[in-house]
Amino acid sequence: MGRHLLWIVSLACLSLGASAAVAEVDWSKVDQAIGKKGAAQPGGVYKFGLPRSDLKVTVDGVTIKPMLALGSWVAFMPAGRETLVMGDLVLTDTEISPVMKRLIDDGMEITAIHNHLLRTSVPVFYMHVGGHGDPVKLAETLHAALTLSKTPLTQPPSAPVSPVELNTAAIEKILGFKGTNNGGVYQFSVPRSETISERGMTVPPSMGTAIALNFQPTGGGKAAITGDFVLLGSEVNPVLKTLRRQGIEVTALHSHMINDSPHLFFMHFWANDDAEKLAQGLRAALDLIRVKRGS
Fold first, then answer.
1. pTM of whole model > 0.70?
2. CA-CA distance, 131 to 50, in Å (whole number)?
């Protein structure tokens, strides 16, 4: 039985309430294999942020902070006797092939490769990956693959929190959600109201199914915004048209997963304008989507 079929069978058993206990994972060993500490997330997920702080990228004259649009990540979730991993790796055009080869040689799957932004000064792409098995071995595979890129893999020294020079309270009021300051970027994570599954297993928002709205101050109350709307097929064109009417450029439209249910489309966007005006535009798009309020 092939690895791909085994994954499907194991997930199907889990979704039917198989009696196998969820494996206890020693996350410190996974930390060691990756090369830095991860963080526990809701739903039993353990996640690593791997920002491409080595890259110097501009779009339309705006220097992109790592947490605006250069944030690689991988997330692990115990599932029965195995652990699932999903991630989004930020890579340059010359890094894609060697990283991909190492991942597929070790049995991991590639589920998408695409752009998120246009007119980047450095060619930047995003590779979505997935796999299952022993969490330490999965982490070792990811580490080995990422060493073929210039992704920083060591734990960075603690740094003071960079202020976000925006009226974040006003932006939160407009959007109807609370944000957080992450590396000088004000970020919103908005979960959809549906349960999202991949091959029959629930995929929580922290594994990449939440709408991401990011604001980076560019001076004078302006912000560069990017992120992605997570959409059903019926929502794609209404949201696209609304964003464009609001002066927000749609830069990419694609899927991140292969066997997700409902099947989702990810719409990336870009603008640099008055932050509150852009928040109004994003809110107009959010109002067309089935999202979980009160988050």
1. yes
2. 18
